[in-house]
Amino acid sequence: MEPSPLSPDHDQENSCPQISPGEQHTDTLFVQARHTVVALGSMLAYTFRSPVESYHGFAPTLHELTMGLMGSSFQPDRDIVDLTGKVIFVTGGNTGLGKEAILQLARHGPSRIYMGARDERKARDAITSIQSTLSSSVDIRHLPLDLSSFDSIRTASEIFTSECDRLDILMLNAGTLGNQAVTTEAGHEIQFGTNHVGHFLLAKLLLPTLLNTAALSPSPDVRVVTLASTASGTSPPFDIMTSATRLMAETTLHRYAASKAANILFASELARRHPNIMSVSVHPGVVKSDLYDRATTSPVLRYPLQIIGLAMRSVRTGALNQLWAAGADRELLENGAYYTPIGVIWRNNQYVVDVALGKKLWDWTDAEVRKFGF
Ligand SMILES: NC(=O)c1ccc[n+]([C@@H]2O[C@H](COP(=O)([O-])OP(=O)(O)OC[C@H]3O[C@@H](n4cnc5c(N)ncnc54)[C@H](OP(=O)(O)O)[C@@H]3O)[C@@H](O)[C@H]2O)c1
Questions:
Q1: 312 pLDDT exceeds 90?
Q2: Which of 10-24, 27-41, 204-218 shows the lowest mean pLDDT across its residues?
Q3: pLDDT in the model for residue 50
Q4: Each residue of 354-367: pLDDT tens digit?
Q5: What values do phi and psi take at 345, rounded to 5?
Q6: Which residue, 218, 300, 361, 371, shows the most beta carbons closer than 10 Å to its own?
Q7: Is the dihedral angle over the CA atoms 232, 185, 250, 32 positive or is it negative?
């Protein structure tokens, strides 16, 4: 009998012997405490190794710090280019940074915005709340999308392509952090599977539409903006990243870091493979959103996160970097680059410069989704 597309004959490397897909595994307090110390220790070490990049995560931008005298300011109302006729797709648009991005982009006249979200009610509420702030209604549609499910991604891309023959801005924004060691339906660690593999598959299925849109113009402006993080600096290496079993043995924050490193590698590799598409990754800063809710249910992570929370950016200012990448004049962006807030380029980021690793991860991820017929 043919294996079901979502019950792959996973090899030993990618299967997770102790924890089957969807099963919840709860660490003991002692394990959580040890993991927290290890994770926060490695983040602190990264901060010392890369102080300026880390500074951009929390602190005011140079422009804010010098009360407008230095650095560049970015104001969505003033600086986002005219989006008339453009189609936009934002994943995880029902809350946090994705919702704020949709709200700001909607003010610049796009013909349609798709909000990829897995929860119908949350998506409807978010669309109602966004529409209520706009001076005239914009065509914002909920597209059911669960990035931890290949079936859901396939259906979402089929609905999208049946309704739209162009896509100008794809914002790969959805993300999850602080999860227990569980896998997606396809057998990938949940954070890596959602944040990276799910987005890879979605982008793969939408790529023909992105390329067709770029081909319509002699000076195309088609963008893919991927939400990454400075947390990527603490990612385990490729061999662990791509082995569900080994990744599940890492702390939850290191598993998240692996997904964010993969986001940067993906964005840079997409730019190399398809230079007609402007593909960049952005760190939004450390932002007070729902992202940390799951992590704060852990008694050991709760207090460190509450302290860090005192210095977090608001969702409004946190969304500025992805809005800059999606909406600022195209000439300001460099294809394949990684940016911290706002529009600060990091040419030497280890995942941007490692061309061989970018190719290796792309090929690995493509082979993973091909196992399911994509
Ligand atoms: N906040 C920060 O400090 C920070 C720092 C660095 C990078 N980032 C990145 O910024 C992005 C946005 O995060 P945020 O701060 O806005 O977090 P958030 O408020 O928690 O929003 C995350 C969004 O992702 C969606 N999502 C999660 N799992 C999903 C799945 N399986 N399928 C579809 N959608 C899913 C959530 O939907 P539900 O509402 O249904 O859960 C929500 O809409 C993420 O990629 C995150 O990694 C954030």
A1: no
A2: 10-24
A3: 76
A4: 999 999 999 999 99
A5: -85, 145
A6: 361
A7: positive
Q: What element of type H or E holds 207? A: helix 199-215
**Mutational pocket test of ligand 1: of 291, 301, 312, 339, the residue with most ligand atoms within 8 Å of the beta carbon:** 291
Classify the C-alpha dihedral 192-195-198-202 as positive or negative. Answer: negative
- Residue among 228, 223, 122, 123 at smallest CA distance from 175: 228
Classify the phi-psi angles of 9: left when phi > 0, otherwise alpha if psi is within -120 to 50, otherwise beta.
Answer: beta
What is the pLDDT confidence band of residue 170, given thresholds at 50, 70 and 90? very high
At which residue do the structure tokens 């709860």 appear? 26
Domain 76-370 matching CATH 3.90.1070.20: the answer reads no
| Predicted pLDDT at 27 | 61
Element (H, E) at 280: strand 277-282
Q: Which of 259, 275, 309 shows the shortest CA–CA distance to 58?
A: 309
Q: Please identify which of the residues 46, 86, 260, 292 carries the catalytic annotation.
A: 260
**Nearest to residue 264, comparing CAs of 357, 333, 327?**
357
* pTM of the shown model: 0.89
State the DSSP H helix or E strand holding residue 344, giving kind and residue range, or none if neither: strand 344-345
Q: Which two tokens stand for residue 323?
A: 């809005």
Which of 95, 121, 224, 301 has most ligand 1 atoms within 8 Å of its beta carbon, as the pocket-test mutant? 95
Strands 338-340 and 222-227 turn out to be unpaired
Domain boundaries, the chain: 76-370
User: Collapsing DSSP states into helix, strand and coil, what is residue 137?
Assistant: coil
